[in-house]
Specification:
It is a single chain. The protein has 15 helices and nine strands. By secondary structure, the chain is α/β, with parallel strands linked by helices. It folds into two domains: about 190 residues, 3-Layer(aba) Sandwich (Rossmann fold); about 35 residues, no CATH class.
């Protein structure tokens, strides 16, 4: 859904890194200088932006905030293992095509005319990548935000196809033809770095690593909200707890303190006796005491 001013007008008004930082801050996202620089260059150069970092540091939120900032539509492709072209680009609506074939057979339509009828744009199911390419043609002057989320979960074959798409932003449908974007969309690719991406994909994109927020990051811009929508004070405590957990220190015990051996009952001391000691004491007992 498109909200706010058009993307072209917003892009023309953003002429500095500080301005894009302030714009993100006004939308409850605290971006440091390096992230603001990467976003500013991605908008000006028209190149994809590859964001890597641990899960939960706010990579996906960057794309959502940028779509709100540009006043354009967010088109999201969630990657997973086994993702193919039919789920990422397009596929034919076979059920609708079968119904159309039955209707054409009832009208005694020729086979050549039937093939032209059932392979038209109205029978094409557009997936996120094709939606992003066609968006600029259907909305002149606007650029959608294409979020390719968790690219590291997809297979290397899909990564190779994506590399070809990012070069010229055009998709070829054999039955229809080539569909080319009039303007490239704003592409943001995220990765949790569960595997290494191909160097060719990294060279195609601008790169930025998003780390966990430091204590100084939310404190420098009070009383705004942090990248998770929390207040600055709670974000400071969150960052402090993260940094504390990252240190190599013994884990504190949450259970009751253990009692010393001298305070244990007699039955506990007997149970703690080694089996060899118990067997030797049994052998020393006389038959009369054992019978008793």
């Amino acid at each position: 859904m498109t909200t706010g001013t058009p993307a072209s007008d917003t892009l023309n008004t953003i002429d500095s890194i500080d301005q894009i930082q302030d714009a993100l801050l006004g939308r409850a996202y605290i971006a440091d200088r390096s992230l603001g620089t990467a976003l500013f260059l991605a908008l000006r150069l028209g190149k994809p932006l590859l964001l890597e970092g641990e899960a939960g540091v706010g990579k996906t939120e960057v794309a959502k905030t940028m779509a709100d900032l540009l006043g354009t539509q967010l088109i999201r492709l969630q990657c997973y293992e086994g993702l193919d072209v039919s789920n990422a680009v397009y596929e034919w609506n076979y059920a609708k095509q079968m119904l159309e074939i039955r209707m054409l057979e009832a009208d005694h339509t020729s086979r050549e005319h039937a093939l032209k009828e059932i392979f038209g744009p109205e029978f094409l199911i557009k997936r996120p990548l094709l939606q992003a390419v066609e968006y600029t043609n259907e909305h002149p002057g606007e650029r959608p935000v294409l979020l390719i989320d968790e690219i590291d979960r997809a297979d290397e074959e899909f990564e190779a196809f994506l590399l070809e798409l990012l070069s010229d932003f055009q998709i070829t449908v054999p039955e229809i033809g080539t569909i080319k974007a009039s303007r490239p969309p704003v592409v943001i690719i995220t990765s949790n770095r569960t595997r290494e991406l191909h160097d060719a994909l990294k060279r195609r994109c601008l790169y930025h690593w998003i780390d966990y927020p430091s204590i100084e990051k939310p404190a420098s811009r009070r009383p705004r909200r942090c990248w998770r929508g929390r207040s600055a004070v709670s974000c400071m405590s969150c960052a402090a707890s993260i940094s504390t957990r990252c240190r190599v220190s013994p884990r504190p015990s949450t259970g009751p303190p253990r009692s010393s051996r001298s305070t244990r009952p007699t039955c506990a001391r007997r149970r703690s006796t080694p089996p060899s000691a118990r067997s030797s004491s049994i052998r020393k007992m006389s038959p009369r005491s054992a019978a008793g």
